[in-house]
Amino acid sequence: MEGNHLEGNHSTRSTPPSVLRDQTDSRVYEVSVQSNSTNLSSQFADVALLQTFKPLIIPCYVLVVMVGVFGNYLLLYVICRTRKMHNVTNFFIGNLAFSDMLMCVTCVPFTLAYAFNPHVFTLTAIAVDRWVDLK
Q1: Which tens digit of pLDDT belongs to each residue from 69-106?
Q2: Does residue 6 carry a pLDDT above 50?
Q3: Whether the Cβ atoms of residue 22 and residue 29 lie closer than 8 Å to each other
Q4: Which pLDDT score is estimated for 66?
Q5: 3-state per-residue secondary structure call for the chain
Q6: Torsion angles phi and psi, residue 7, rounded to 5
Q7: What is its main location (predicted)?
Q8: Burial class for 28, CB neighbours closer than 10 Å (0-12, 13-18, 19+)
Q9: pTM for the whole thing?
Q10: Angle, alpha carbons 109-110-114 (nearest 5°)
């Protein structure tokens, strides 16, 4: 019993790394790590989930882009054509509509493309960096 106890009556015997003992209670907490990866070729778990819902997600993104562009265009059309709508507040709203329309056209498709294949933009960034270095 000489080597089994330290100050404070704590045992020195080694416990497995997955078992943690609380010194104030006699409770034992066990931590287990499991990997339930069904698609081993996918580096990201969410990419596999996105691939299963791809036929649903793409039309939804297309609908969002079309409604966003059409709605913002209608707002800009009304503000530009109606003389009564020419005031500072409506010009501000028109600027917001125009920037939202640009976001729908430029950012949303890239967000969708990145969601399904995140490595494309990494390779593109490397290619652009090398092209800039050559100039």
Answers
A1: 999 999 999 999 999 999 999 999 999 999 999 999 99
A2: no
A3: yes
A4: 96
A5: CCCCECCCCCECCCCCCCEEECCCCCCEEECCCCCCCCCCCCCCHHHHHHHHCHHHHHHHHHHHHHHHHHHHHHHHHHHHHCHHHCCHHHHHHHHHHHHHHHHHHHHHHHHHHHHHCCHHHHHHHHHHHHHHHHC
A6: -60, 140
A7: membrane
A8: exposed
A9: 0.55
A10: 120
